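Deliverable D4.2, example record:
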Amino acid sequence: MAAVQEGKGQSGEGVSAAIKMASSKPFSAFERLVAWRYLRARRREAFISVIAGFSFAGIMLGVATLIIVMAVMNGFRTELISRMLGMNGHIVLQPIDSPLSDYPELAKKIAAVPGVTMALPIVEGQVFASGRSVGSGTGAIVRGIRADDLVKIPEVANNIKAGDLVGYAAGDGVLIGQRMANSLGIMPGDSISLLAPEGDVTPMGTSPRIKAYKVSGIFEVGMSEYDSGIIFMPLEEAQLYFNVEGIVQNIEIFVQHPDRVEDLREPIETAADRQVYLTDWRQRHQSFFSALQVERNVMFMILTLIVLVAALNIISGLIMLVKDKGSDIAILRTMGATSGAIMRIFFMTGAAIGTVGTFAGVLLGVIVCLNIESIRSFFSWVSGTVIFDPELYFLSQLPAEMNVSETLSVVIMALTLSFLATIFPAWRASRLDPVQALRYE
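Output generated by the structure prediction step:
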């Protein structure tokens, strides 16, 4: 009998020694085994498992939402910039001392500046356009541009949906956007009537000018602002229509690197060799893109709260797990496990929820971003409403562009919050008194 008790004592001492040796190494196999065991809840621990599941789902959805929203806002900004800059010059040159009557020579000089891709003389004016549909009409902007220059703008020349540029090149046709054509009921070959407020001067005063033009082609660039409100007209005809024969209002300059337009100001002014006023695309759209940046930052801060709430769920779940496993912790401590080992066990338990939830959220976010337009179309079909109306958001499709650095920042932020959330419950577990825990067992 004594031998049996002695054997049991030796066996207990051996287990304690093994536990003490295993737990002396940080994040050892023993600690990982216990942490994994605590992640698998039994039937009587189902409530704790539910809390852990909600924590996992919260972190996954929070990370995915952050990635999706940031990607959509990045895509929105990129699409707007690319299409705005594709249709409009990166730098606009306007005269100060005298009208631009020497625009052919001036445009050639500016186009020869290193870094400048093209310089396009432009005549621009507001009109009221009407079609063959009774009662149809809309405000529009006429942009007079040479046919050779229009071909250099791929956003227009490569997106002719109906008709062609033959009539435009011959000087007796205009180009209109797809949305304008639909609202006015116009097809290629039809006529569009344009009413300009500043027309001919008569003894009775200035009378509006009304003239009909044949529609040579219909373009669609994907931005409702341009597809519904821009009319391209041959430069010479636009000069006649707006009573500015022989001059242009400005010269739009396109450059190779739009983000470095400031470097080209001085060379362009030198090439112009006259007093000119230059404005770049950042100045013209400063308030718009500043508002986009502010909205993007605010959305990031708001959506971060979702991840923070999920991290708080990890805290509550681990505190309940520590309370439920009090006797187990006491037994491990009496068998040789150090307080540091107990802390690491519960740290790994909570960190596992945060880590797996974070990477699951990244995977979900990537999948949604890659199929964002299909998902939008599906929900539009299910709800019977238009989601992301092009009339409001200027784009015909919902864009999404993931940024690697932003995605990494989201992952780091989520992991940091998850790890910080596990420190307090793990510390409480390590400070548990074995005597108090086993007193009522």
